[in-house]
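Standup notes, structure subgroup. Blocker cleared on the adenosine-5'-triphosphate input:
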Amino acid sequence: MSQETTGMNYLTMSDVVLDDKRVLVRVDFNSPMDDNGNILDDKKIKSHLPTLQSLEHSKVVLLSHQGRPGDEDYTPLEAHAKLATELLGREVTYEDDIFSSCARNAIKSLDQGEVLLLENTRFNAEEIMNRPPDKQAKSQMVKKLYPLFDLFINDAFSVSHRSQCSVVGFTEVLPSVAGMLMDKEITGLDKALKCHEHPAIFVLGGAKANDSIKAISTILKRDGADKILTTGVVATIFMMAMNIDVSEVNRKFIENKKYIDQISIASRLLKEYSGKIIVPQDVALNNGGERQEVEVDKIKKGNLPIADIGRETIENYSKYLKEAKLCVFHGPTGIFELDKFRLGTDELLKAATQASYSVAGGGHTLDAIDQLGLGSKFSHISMGGGASITYLSGEPLPGITALKNNTFRYHKG
Ligand SMILES: Nc1ncnc2c1ncn2[C@@H]1O[C@H](COP(=O)(O)OP(=O)(O)OP(=O)(O)O)[C@@H](O)[C@H]1O
Ligand SMILES: O=C(O)[C@H](O)COP(=O)(O)O
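Run returned:
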């Protein structure tokens, strides 16, 4: 059983018999993809290898999502099965369905030691409806699949902040335990959550601004941070909340991302937690591929997209980070995929490693860390972006709560 940490008590793989069992494992293979459906980074898949290696005498079926409906990286999982085969050194068969009779027959015919990857869970409409576990347990996916298994393992920490079918549904109807990656993530993040040293600084950027803004609210409510340094799209929303004219092109960008409702939330947070949330003083605009640095009150002039934080902001934020005892970094500060706009991400990541305890999370963030060779300099690297900041905000993650509740339901004695 796991350590009693944040009040969570869940079982791990060492608490149950795995050999000869029919095991359903929720992994998170969601990876950056190019336009031809190739996987650009194997970290997410690699991170599950310890769990998969420990299941070599079980019949193993894997569930994962990839992308979100409508996005370009919303793809089938065939390439993931191929890459997992290479990395694991054992065949991971791909089934292009989730719970059809074909898929169920393939599951039934698995032998000990075989691994089967089902299709992208988000191809099923019920998956992405965030609903409570008891409702998810009645979904077609869960009803059709669960009778074929003895055990459910949730190894997908990085999606455990979503109350989706494949994350919380099976824990209602099958004995369930945490996978090795899940346990490692919780242990690493708990150290940060329980670190009461100050200053505690969060650097929050990237594109999934709604997740970050929700986390900011919870973090500040529990007094979990001395400063929140905003960057990326999160910063654009806070600038708009401060009535800074970010120009038409950036307003449109926020509108297209469906983040307009986040502006009033940001505005409330700025009032409620005065002085805690820091907004960039300058930004780098993308002027035909060139970096054009301007003070934020000059953004309106050019109608050019914001693509990074500016040098003054980098310097100012670095000062906060030099003093930090705890630093949590989530999301690039700008469009770091373009060389001209990775300065903020690179400099602040380097500065973040100086904190006594440093945590970084998120797919793109980890990419940037890899490119800088900074992996070993962080105290904990989390595969989850949204999941790690939600966890560090102190809010329970539905996937972990579901494991805890399962312990009481199935393993009382
Ligand atoms: N100002 C900006 N405008 C547009 N895109 C931005 C901006 N700042 C950052 N981005 C983009 O944000 C993306 C990464 O954001 P995201 O929130 O997905 O981070 P992450 O580290 O991958 O975390 P997660 O794993 O939660 O997705 C990058 O592709 C980057 O180009
Ligand atoms: O990349 C992630 O953070 C996880 O795979 C979760 O993906 P989501 O934000 O689309 O739910």
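Discussed briefly. Residues 28, 30, 68, 158-159, 162, 363, 384-386 surround 3-phosphoglyceric acid (ligand 2) (CB under 6 Å).
Next: hand off to the docking folks.
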